[in-house]
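re: ur question from yesterday

yeah so i grabbed the chain u mentioned. its 335 aa long if i counted rite. heres the sequnce exactly as i have it in my notes:
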Amino acid sequence: MLKCQSKRVSLLPLPESYSNLPPAVLRFNEPDIPLVEGELSIDMSSFPAALKGKLKWLKHVAENSSVKAKVGKNISWSAYHAVVLPDANKLPVSALLPLFHEQAKSVALIRHSLNIIRNAVRKLNPGQTPVVAFDQPLFTIAKLIQWNWPQMYGEDHFVMMFGGLHIEMAAFKAFGSWLEDSEWTSVLVNAQVTSPGTADSFLKASPVTTTRRTHQVTACTLYRLLSNAYCQYKDVLRYDEVILEFEEWCLELSKQSPHFKFWYITLKFELTLLIFIRSILANPSMPSPDLFGWQKLDGTWVPFWSVLAEASMSCMLMLESSIKMHSIMQLLNGL
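ran it thru and got these structure tokens back, copy pasting raw so excuse formatting
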């Protein structure tokens, strides 16, 4: 906290309720896990719209992947969604509290942090249940705290969850178990997408960024194969037969072919993960590229090539200036 007095700025000390760390230890290393009562409620109202957005991206890729990609087509997942972002999308309000000297993995510090978060939430939004995200090692300690002191930090008082990155990694690892014996890695190697060792690492979500890109490519490939099969289905139909809609056709084939059902579920799984990843990414307001050596021509950003002096001439001028400066310094030293 800053305090101004006659043009002097002094830093006030933090309150003892914040800076003093009460000691704490776990009473039970293996506490009883409370049973969850009631029905699980899932709100899927926004999922169809999100899935529709992913299908638009897949269609965009299918329409532009038959020829060599041109500048401005935005085929990649990140580039496409960066272009279609709504202008009114605002970032959430966030703040960084003063840091502690103690290790984050200690029970005392995590318990103290929960108290501070609860007090802050009560001040800003009375009645709201605090939601706290942790990295995987700290999440384990936080859950032990929650189960050791259920009256203070129970699941009706706090919502403990993984951070976005760790949820993504856990989901991709689960996806790796799903694809482990499907020859998915062999397809990647035969298509010269990656090497055998790297392909096997994707099953364990390592590295997570490359794993995400590989699943994006897989989703595009599966959708294109699915679209081609649907077009062939419509071509062989007789004029008196009813044409099923795309989703109905997929569900009907899933009943007939376990192999089709497996890869159709795989596509749905990948799109669901991409929807989640998209939901946790921030949309910062980026400066215009024309401030960094780019210019927009016919709706496309291209590098702005400036005309500079030849490098050889510039180097000669610098060398001459250096020699002259050296001579002047010697002359001054002689005086």
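noticed a couple things. Residues 208-235 form the longest helix (28 residues). also The chain has a mean pLDDT of 82.
anyway ttyl
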